[in-house]
Amino acid sequence: MGKNNPQRIEKPLWGWEMIHENNLEGNRCVKDLHLLEGRWCSLQYHREKSETHYVTEGAILMLKGPDGGIIEDEEGNILEVLGENKLKLLMPGKSAYIPPYTAHRCGSLTGTSVIREESTYHKDSDTYRLEETVKGSTNVIPEEIMEEYVRRLERTKEEFMSIK
Q1: CATH code for the structural domain at 7-163
Q2: Contact, 59 vs 87, CB < 8 A?
Q3: Pairing state of beta strands 28-35 and 95-98?
Q4: For residue range 49-100, what is the model confidence (pLDDT) as tens digits?
Q5: pTM > 0.85
Q6: Dihedrals φ, ψ of 111, to 5°?
């Protein structure tokens, strides 16, 4: 896929992605994830792919496990998931690095939020879902989490405005 021919892929349960580049020879993928308010994608990890997420619009809620926290045996079966997943609020200009074997998922707190994902080459066979996104259940950010992080977001905005 060339840089001048972006491809839109619908993700009906959480939004869509716009793939700008996915180059095997250059080992590079660039795409924008458009996440609908109150929705998030499946909890997943990759064995080969590493990603950096840059928030460009909105407010993102990221659930991320410890770096490299998925331990597998030689057949690829999960033996252990180390540590706990932690929630983090990311605003425009903020980023998060996700190395291989790290559980992660992202969701939007406000409107349609956008993440620019820059990563190594993407192949679907390298995506391992720990929790599949299912309509009406796991694709919706739980109400109590939404409420807590929307409050945090409002406090952050108020603190920023008081600096001016």
Answers
A1: 2.60.120.10
A2: no
A3: unpaired
A4: 999 999 999 999 999 999 999 999 999 898 888 888 899 999 999 999 999 9
A5: yes
A6: 50, -145
